[in-house]
Design a protein that fits this description.
Helix content: 40-55%
Shape: globular
Order of helices and strands: HHHEE
Distance between the termini: 31 Å
Mean pLDDT: 91
CATH architecture: Orthogonal Bundle
Oligomer: single chain
Number of domains: 1
CATH topology: Arc Repressor Mutant, subunit A
Radius of gyration: 13 Å
Number of strands: 2
Strand content: 5-15%
CATH class: Mainly Alpha
Number of helices: 3
């Protein structure tokens, strides 16, 4: 999937939106690891700092959490659906 580098929405926000949709649509289900930064870098062709910002947005929203040494995983409970915070 491509992002609009010339548009008004920063790339990291576009990527966060794409990943959020994948989570909400069940493409990346609860408990599953989201793609690594290397995988996301290959998909979106952006700097890792941009990807880190996108993942940080999802963490702030409570959609994902980091598991030390394993990666970033979709949380079991989603905000707005009785999630724990």
């Amino acid at each position: 999937m491509s992002i609009d580098r010339e548009g008004p929405v920063p790339p990291y926000k576009q990527i966060a939106t794409i990943l959020r949709r994948r989570i909400e649509d069940g493409e990346i289900p609860a408990g599953r690891r989201i793609p690594s930064l290397v995988e996301l870098e290959a998909e979106f062709s952006v700097a890792r700092d941009t990807l880190r910002k996108a993942v940080a947005v999802l963490k702030e929203e409570g959609l994902v959490e980091t598991v030390a040494g394993m990666g970033v995983f979709v949380r079991d409970g989603q905000p707005g659906r009785g999630a724990r915070r």
